[in-house]
Design a protein that fits this description.
The protein is an alpha/beta fold. The chain is built from 22 helices and 29 strands. Helix 4 packs across helix 8 and helix 7 (189-196) packs across helix 8 (200-213). It binds ligand MGD (2 copies) and molybdenum atom. Residues 5, 8 line the site of molybdenum atom.
């Protein structure tokens, strides 16, 4: 019932799925001239397709691309940027809304032709907040040419109205764009300054720079195809959206790109490869978005399958229902991963669920450390029969496991297409690459490849046929390469069939073992796919409003008064996250960040990286605090302090005084402070940030299942 990543990028993935037909996004650095980053280290020290993006970032900077980084701390991205905007954590939505307001209402920089074509900006919205539909259920738009409402896909529609107010069947109906523009008005730069601590004059300048850099109306020819050219990109991730105001915030940032048309065209924010026509000889793999009956984008490729209880694509949303699953994915039918069992399993009756989980199967996650306060996690799962598949006996295995299955590490195993699905493939022109991961050493000790273990488990459970049908679906395998349900295959044979199924008889496992990768050229229509589709991206999330009402009704019936319905809105909005709510005696906010040479928390067990962290780089093991704030508190470099959360635990560590951090903030890298006996190098190194995070509904954005990943804290000498 847990998918990977826990609180990784839920709000972003929801928007990536609906606006970009992909799981995640990345900027098109080959053409971008102005990159505005909100709480993300793309191309500098983290985020996705890391190494390629770092190279492209370097090339773009050499070419003169300007980088502006919004971040409470001068981490790797901010320190290399042309401009750093130190923001108060959790307030990015207010900044983005003020910029939207300036673009739409003051500078009048927006891309009307784009908004009219592949978005729903022209769809008429009634005073009930929902689409105005015709008798056949089609959303209507206002046709200014005939002064009548018409279905959005009516071929005679000439001049769809983006603005104004109309009467349809005696009721007021306004284009979604008109509502967006109106609602953004509330966010003057001065109002945003109060919330973000970024001066109003700076907000005005940045909005103008971004809007002008987008060159609305311009075109570029790439490989003989004329395309819209929008060389300005926004990108945001963990820092900006990792709060319980994730939905409204992420939407505000995304719409900065949408209103200027900087979405999936040269220079802009791009979905991570949502269109693939496949290898020229076989046409495999093949996927592309399509439109639903309201004209909106359905992604062509998504994680998992749309089975009850697993992750469905975010759109079109199913009807909400009283929860049967502990992850509440049937109540809120669009988040892509969910950590909620850590909350629901302790008291399922409260959610109308009449069972508790009995077993936990954990593959390569240290969830006792990576979720939030470990006491909550251990309490929720301690009675479960738990299997951990891991390289080490980490904190989760130590606290919860009945059985630990030792997995092979990446140097010991054979994997087909290890980098294909998901966001590892860089965006933009270039090549598609399919790879092989081959073992370079035999597995040590009793380690076994997890795929082989899964096949064995499927046999013992008697579900091998179902399992192989699932693999056929997942890899799109057709005869003669599809797995026959009743037949037993070894892992090597399955890999061979996957390769042959995609690339033909002569390019099987042996071919890949010899050649390593298969590359072919990406086509313009695959990469810059927006101008070639009639599927529309939403600037108005009508169904969040519509389904939200149904969800609200169920929530009220269940009496869940801590289930926050206030963020279920169709348009961007901002409200303080929990860590921004004033708490007597707690004067600071704790945030976390990644450093370039660590991956999550597991690399704290790597002796070389441990040495780097101890000897040359103070930002992985210390608690960073602003020099002036430290002075007021009488703290010096190297002092040992407690950081105590208003809502959860406290952690101890040494302080490092820095200039490059917002004065109201303490910064802690990743998740250190391991305590498992199975991780001797990591043990006691660094600071365990997540002890500070409360795991409950109050700290969760219920639209996207994103938790507030910073905490209101106080700092005092230990
Ligand atoms: N404080 C803080 N919390 C965070 C984050 C953060 O940056 N800071 N990030 C959040 C995000 S975005 C994410 S995605 C999650 C990540 O959270 P997790 O996925 O839980 O990451 P880790 O804590 O590194 O745990 C990874 C586990 O996988 C094991 N492992 C490594 N390689 C293999 C392998 O090949 N096979 C198997 N079976 N196991 C292996 C490691 O031993 C380790 O126990 O954390 C979330 N929580
Ligand atoms: N080197 C490395 N690369 C990685 C990973 C890794 O562990 N190491 N993990 C991978 C995974 S799973 C993920 S999810 C991605 C994450 O990719 P990123 O989101 O790029 O990762 P972080 O370093 O956590 O970036 C968060 C930034 O946001 C800032 N921040 C914190 N709070 C706020 C806020 O309220 N507002 C703003 N504007 N900024 C804020 C932090 O200071 C930090 O600089 O990286 C992936 N790539
Ligand atoms: Mo993540």
């Amino acid at each position: 019932f847990l998918s990977d990543g826990h609180h990784c990028g839920n709000a972003e993935h929801l928007l990536a799925g609906t606006l970009h037909a992909a799981t995640t996004t990345n900027p098109d650095l080959a053409y971008c001239n102005y990159l505005l980053i909100f709480g993300c280290q793309v191309g500098f020290s983290g985020y996705y397709a890391y190494t390629t993006m770092a190279q492209r970032m370097a090339e773009a900077r050499t070419r003169g691309m300007r980088v502006v980084v919004v971040d409470p701390m001068m981490n790797t991205a901010a320190e290399k940027a042309d401009e750093w905007l130190p923001i108060r954590p959790g307030s990015d939505g207010a900044l983005a809304l003020a910029m939207l307001n300036l673009l739409l209402n003051e500078y009048h920089i927006y891309d009307a032709p784009y908004l009219k074509a592949p978005t729903n900006a022209i769809y008429l919205i009634g005073d009930d907040g929902l689409y105005v539909r015709d008798s056949a259920g089609k959303p209507l738009v206002w046709d200014a040419a005939s002064a009548t409402p018409r279905p959005f896909d009516d071929p005679v529609l000439k001049e769809p109205a983006l603005e104004g107010s109309y009467q349809v069947a005696g009721k007021r109906a306004r284009p979604a764009f008109e509502l967006l523009r109106e609602s953004a008005r509330e966010w003057t730069p001065e109002a945003a300054e109060k919330v973000t601590t970024i001066p109003a004059a700076t907000i005005r300048r940045i909005a103008k720079e971004f809007g002008e850099a987008a060159r609305v109306g311009s075109t570029i020819v790439i490989e003989g195809k004329e395309l819209p050219y929008r060389p300005a990109s926004v990108i945001y991730f963990k820092g900006a959206h990792g709060h319980n105001n994730a939905w409204g915030t992420s939407l505000a940032i995304e719409l900065l790109a949408e209103v200027v048309g900087a979405s999936n065209v040269p220079g802009s924010l791009m979905g991570c490869n949502p269109v693939c026509y496949g290898h020229p000889e076989t046409g495999m793999p093949h996927y592309q978005p399509k439109a639903d009956r309201d004209g909106m984008i359905i992604p062509g490729l998504w994680f998992g399958m749309s089975q009850p209880g697993t992750t469905p694509p975010p759109f079109p949303p199913r009807q909400p229902r009283k929860p049967r699953f502990l992850n509440l994915i049937d109540l809120v039918p669009w988040p892509m991963s969910t950590f909620l069992p850590v909350i629901t399993n302790s008291n399922p009756e409260r959610f109308g669920i009449d069972y508790k989980a009995e077993a936990l199967f954990n593959y390569g996650s240290n969830l006792v450390m990576s979720l939030g306060n470990p006491e909550t996690t251990v309490n929720a799962f301690k009675d479960l029969f738990t299997v951990c598949v891991n390289l080490w006996v980490d904190e989760t295995a130590e606290a919860l496991a009945d059985i630990v299955l030792p997995d092979t590490c990446y140097l010991e195993r054979l994997d087909p297409m290890p980098q294909w699905f998901h966001h590892h493939h860089p965006v933009g022109m270039g090549e598609w690459t399919c790879q092989i991961r081959q073992p370079v050493v035999p597995p040590a000790y009793e380690r076994r490849h997890f795929s082989e273990v899964l096949l064995d488990l499927a046999d013992r459970l008697g579900i091998r046929p179902d399992f192989q049908v699932m693999l056929n679906l997942f890899y799109g395998l057709k005869p003669p390469y599809a797995l026959e349900p009743e037949k037993k295959y070894a892992w090597e044979e399955i890999c061979d069939r996957i390769y042959k199924g995609w690339f033909g008889e002569e390019r099987g496992l042996e071919w890949f073992k010899e050649h390593g990768t298969l590359n072919w050229k990406k086509q313009v229509e695959e990469v810059y796919w927006k101008p070639f589709t009639h599927a529309r991206g939403p600037i108005y999330f009508e169904w969040v409003e519509e389904r939200g009402r149904k969800i609200g009704k169920i929530v009220r019936e269940l009496g869940l008064d801590d289930f926050d319905m206030s963020t279920f809105k169709a348009l961007p909005h901002w409200q303080p996250c929990r860590a921004l709510e004033p708490r007597e005696g707690y004067d600071l906010q704790a945030i976390y960040y990644r450093v370039p040479f660590h991956t999550f928390s597991m690399t704290y067990e790597n002796p070389w990286l441990d040495e780097v962290s101890r000897v040359t780089e103070p930002y992985s093991y210390f608690i960073s605090i602003n020099r002036e704030t430290a002075r007021r508190k009488g703290l010096k470099d190297g002092d040992v302090v407690w950081v105590e959360s208003a809502d959860a635990g406290r952690v101890k560590g040494q302080v490092k005084l820095v200039e490059g951090i917002h004065p109201e903030v303490v910064g802690i890298a990743h998740n250190g402070g391991h305590w498992a006996r199975g991780m001797p190098f990591a043990k006691g190194k660094g600071v365990f940030f997540n002890a500070l995070l409360a795991l409950d509904l109050r700290h969760t954005d219920m639209v996207s299942f994103t938790m507030d990943c910073d905490a209101r804290v106080k700092v005092y000498k230990a």
